[in-house]
């Protein structure tokens, strides 16, 4: 007896379909699984969920001081405001108050003192957000101000740190520098960056009948939110369910900092027995949450007449804000990437996590890697200026060598294997016509008095894996139904990057069925427990492998059954384009085969698991292999600068990027281009400004400028490296693509320096902090034109 779930097909039709090839598996440009819903507005985010009649809304009153003792806290006036249901303070938390992700230092609400402007002090729940805000503003709170650390250089001098410092050392840098023909030293300020996700931090919490909660949360890290909500409530983790279908952007800002709104809403939900939503308005989100770490980096470098580095000492100091958060790992990654694509034989790299009275800075795309790379790219340009060489010539002279030829080991003693940055650079140099354009730019600059052009090629070598080794694991749940449809759940989170689409393609490829037969369900801590955050570019590497593992377990059961049932070899059971061919005995649609397996009591559900092999890092000895592999990229940017105002425009960008064997070329190119533009914003327009009281002045889109459509380069050429599969056993030999392209934008910053060189006095080398706003570009021009008029022609 058989129930047909698909239109009947003849043997010839099924054979023809199988031979046609899978149209939506791995390597195909399948559209994003939520694209149509996002365009039409049907995609549901947390704030789109239907509200309950008795739902409460939360507003948190923020500290107006960077550092102060709370001398009076009276919330009774809050209850005089209409609609106010309850007010909570630090004393109302039933469990643990501290919600620091790794180390303590992040109280859910201020406990006796405040440590940054924007810290939540009380939380008010009312029948509307406006009423909650009015209720919070009615509270009477008095403070006694304390000295505040607001300047990272001053805090560094005072050795104010949130965690211990760390040093990586290879060779004898001091002696190598002393013996070098040329020595330079200097420093560089690298600014932070606001995440500016479209969807601000938001959680919606529903209390359950057993004293627990269901939390609908916009988070990259469901398990951590589950753990911290259970901690503040004082209940086991099994009483807390986190559900996360999609985020309206994350970029690292929802890895740890989604926890506070979720925890506050959960405490109020348990206290009142009512559903609670806590959504941060944009200004409050920008003031309350941390950013990309600003860095103050110092260096001393010795090099020969060809610009080859003989010895280097680098100190990277990340502005952690008031608490540890993830700063130790972020500064570690800045140290790991202080070499970028360059061999540093004699090197000492030191990292500090500096404590200041600002919001606790956190993860952001690249996770410290971009800030670390900036120093060595600054050094390359500075060496080139000192020797009057083309910066590209200096860069290529310092590249890592091929494995086994020497010059292939990092300053933390990991071998750089499968290095092809030389070939990629040569490819891009030729395809973008770099040499001819540099000559043309030199001629242009010689005749143009006001407008000057610059061009630069910069590389990227980015390590893939969590530097906290234990996080390199993932789980997935795959369920196959008797009609051939497949339900897929994994521990990763979808924030627009196409993770669900890629993982669905992986499962489709494994069963050789169309991706449309697969439904990816919301990330759910009851289906896949103990998940790692979706971060470190590892979402597809980890969750894709886990889903593949689950699918292969089911497929193996199906093959074993078919082999036994039809008395054929397992090798004769072939899955192809939705058809299952069983030797000469039978040919079935995948749906009919699933039903046959069920009738014969074969389990069609499985949990999969994956852990990344080979990686380790010994913090005590600063040695190891923290990365499974490296992803490479090269970009060329051309800019034009108005030397009277410092204003500029990016004219052309050419990118060649390595994604291994691409799982989805369209999504990968989108990630490369999007990452580049976001990186360009970090290095050009996105300036964070605090006043002398520690208050963020750029707390909205009117004062904080992310790149817009008009900032996109007029010519924007993007290519993926072809026919270069990842030699490591990643999922279908692909490579991660989330973070590495971000740092390709360093070529824009370097091109701006190149343009400034054309107006510099003899021997003057431009110093350009990041972000290189028009003001900073204009100041750099003034500094290198000391012997010239600031106006290059007579008015």
Automatic annotation (TrEMBL):
Domain named Aldehyde oxidase/xanthine dehydrogenase a/b hammerhead: residues: 40-147
Organism: Enterovibrio qingdaonensis
Record keywords: Oxidoreductase
Domain of life (superkingdom): Bacteria
E.C. designation(s): 1.17.1.4
Listed name of the protein: Xanthine dehydrogenase molybdopterin binding subunit
The keyword Hydrolase is annotated on this UniProt entry: no
Xref: Pfam families: Ald_Xan_dh_C, MoCoBD_1, MoCoBD_2
NCBIfam families, alphabetized: xanthine_xdhB
Record GO terms (molecular function): xanthine dehydrogenase activity
């Amino acid at each position: 007896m058989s129930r047909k779930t698909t239109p009947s097909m003849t043997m010839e039709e099924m054979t023809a379909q199988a031979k046609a090839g899978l149209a939506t598996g791995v390597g195909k440009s399948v559209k994003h699984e939520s694209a149509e819903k996002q365009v039409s507005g049907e995609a549901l985010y947390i704030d789109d969920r239907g509200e309950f009649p008795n739902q409460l809304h939360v507003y948190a009153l923020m500290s107006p001081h960077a550092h102060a003792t709370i001398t009076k806290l009276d919330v009774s006036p809050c209850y005089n405001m209409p609609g106010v249901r309850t007010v909570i303070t630090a004393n109302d938390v039933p469990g643990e108050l501290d919600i620091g992700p790794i180390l303590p230092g992040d109280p859910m609400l201020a406990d006796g003192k405040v440590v940054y402007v924007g810290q939540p002090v009380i939380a008010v729940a009312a029948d509307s957000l406006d009423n909650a805000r009015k209720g919070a503003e009615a509270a009477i709170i008095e403070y006694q101000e304390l000295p505040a650390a607001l300047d990272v250089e001053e805090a560094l001098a005072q050795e104010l740190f949130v965690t211990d410092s760390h040093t990586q050392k290879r060779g004898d840098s001091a002696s190598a520098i002393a013996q070098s023909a040329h020595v330079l030293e200097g420093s560089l300020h690298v600014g932070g960056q606001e995440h500016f996700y479209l969807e601000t931090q938001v959680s919606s919490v529903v209390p359950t009948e057993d004293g627990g909660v269901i939390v609908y949360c916009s988070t990259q890290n469901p398990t951590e939110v589950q753990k911290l909500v259970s901690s503040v409530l004082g209940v086991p983790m099994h009483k807390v369910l986190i559900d996360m279908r999609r985020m309206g952007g994350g970029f690292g800002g929802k890895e740890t900092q989604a926890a506070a709104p979720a925890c506050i809403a959960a405490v109020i939900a348990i206290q009142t027995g009512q559903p609670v939503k806590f959504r941060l308005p944009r200004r409050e989100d920008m003031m309350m949450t941390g950013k990309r770490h600003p860095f103050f980096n110092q260096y001393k470098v010795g090099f020969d007449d060809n610009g080859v580095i003989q010895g280097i000492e680098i100190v990277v100091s990340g502005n952690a804000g008031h608490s540890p958060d993830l700063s130790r790992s972020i500064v570690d990654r800045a140290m790991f990437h202080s070499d970028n694509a360059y061999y540093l034989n004699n090197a000492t790299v030191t990292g500090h996590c500096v404590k200041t009275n600002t919001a606790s800075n956190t993860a952001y795309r690249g996770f410290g890697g971009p800030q670390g790379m900036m120093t060595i790219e600054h050094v390359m340009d500075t060496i080139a200026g000192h020797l009057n060489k083309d910066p590209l010539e200096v860069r290529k002279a310092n590249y890592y060598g091929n494995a086994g030829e020497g010059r292939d080991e990092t300053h933390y003693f990991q071998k750089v294997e499968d290095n092809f940055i030389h070939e990629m650079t040569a490819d891009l140099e030729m395809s973008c016509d770099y040499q001819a354009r540099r000559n043309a730019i030199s001629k242009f600059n010689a005749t143009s008095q006001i407008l000057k052009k610059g061009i630069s090629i910069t590389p990227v070598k980015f390590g893939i894996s969590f530097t906290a080794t234990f996080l390199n694991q993932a789980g997935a749940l795959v369920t196959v139904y008797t009609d051939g449809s497949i339900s897929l759940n994994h521990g990763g989170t979808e924030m627009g990057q196409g993770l669900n689409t890629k993982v669905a393609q992986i499962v489709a490829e494994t069963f050789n069925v169309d991706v449309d037969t697969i439904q990816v369900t919301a990330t759910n801590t009851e289906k896949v427990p103990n998940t790692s955050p979706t971060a470190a570019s590892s979402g597809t590497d980890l969750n894709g492998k886990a889903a593949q593992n689950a699918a292969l377990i089911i497929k193996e059961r199906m093959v074993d059954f078919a082999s036994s049932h039809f008395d054929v070899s397992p090798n004769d059971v072939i899955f192809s384009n939705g058809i299952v061919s069983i030797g000469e005995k039978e040919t079935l649609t995948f749906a009919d085969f699933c039903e046959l397996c069920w009738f014969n009591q074969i389990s069609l559900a499985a949990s999969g698991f994956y852990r990344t092999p080979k990686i380790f890092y010994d913090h005590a000895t600063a040695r190891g292999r923290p990365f499974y592999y490296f992803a490479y990229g090269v970009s060329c940017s051309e800019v034009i600068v108005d030397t009277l105002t410092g204003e500029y425009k990016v004219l052309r960008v050419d990118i060649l990027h390595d994604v291994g064997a691409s799982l989805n070329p369209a999504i990968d190119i989108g990630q490369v281009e999007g990452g580049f533009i976001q990186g360009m914003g970090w290095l050009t327009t996105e300036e964070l400004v605090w006043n002398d009281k520690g208050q963020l002045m750029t707390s909205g889109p009117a004062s904080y400028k992310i790149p817009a459509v008009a900032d996109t380069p007029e010519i924007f050429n993007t290519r993926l490296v072809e026919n270069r599969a990842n030699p490591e056993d990643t999922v279908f030999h692909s490579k991660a693509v989330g973070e590495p392209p971000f740092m390709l934008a360093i070529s824009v910053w370097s091109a701006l320096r190149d343009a400034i060189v054309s107006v510099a006095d003899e021997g003057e080398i431009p110093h350009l902090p990041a972000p290189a706003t028009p003001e900073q570009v204009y100041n750099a021009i003034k500094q290198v034109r000391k012997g010239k008029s600031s106006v290059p022609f007579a008015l």
